[in-house]
Amino acid sequence: MTRTLNEVIKGLPLDQQQEIEAQATRLIEEEMTLRDLRKAHELTQERMAETLHISQDGVSRIEKRSDFLLSTLRSYVEAMGGKLRLIAEFPNRKPVMLSDFNSVNTNARRDRKAAPARTNSKQGGGRPKKKINSADVA
After folding, report:
1. Which residues contact 33 (CB under 8 A, 6 or more apart)?
2. What is residue 117's three-state secondary structure?
3. Which residues of the chain have a pLDDT value below 70?
4. I need a surface site. Which of 19, 57, 62, 113 has the fewest CB within 10 A?
5. Residue 45 · residue 56 · CB < 8 Å
6. Plot region of 99 (φ>0 → left; ψ -120 to 50 → alpha; else → beta)
7. Looking at the domain assignment, is residue 95 inside a domain?
């Protein structure tokens, strides 16, 4: 006769059942998707969109991505009231928390905003075109 996992667990002593439940809870807490994290904070995509100044569809796309900028992830976490920390793990060494990536990203965003807009290389090789008035033509 085939039994489900729940049936097997219910047949165990109470202390083992509690340990299984505690371990499952720890594992669930250790790894969450952005969607899970947002829902755990009882936030809607609409509320996140308002906080991030993007559309609800933009929040949905962020939650579905597997590869994005650290600044995007940091903004998303901060919109929920958290703080993003980046930890590198290596064999035979304790985990290392990387620092200064927040200030680097902030400076990069500031520099991009201050930089002049790029033009298409087909439109004069990136240099601004001089506007010619009819009075300049003789």
Report:
1. 63
2. coil
3. 28-30, 101-138
4. 113
5. yes
6. beta
7. no
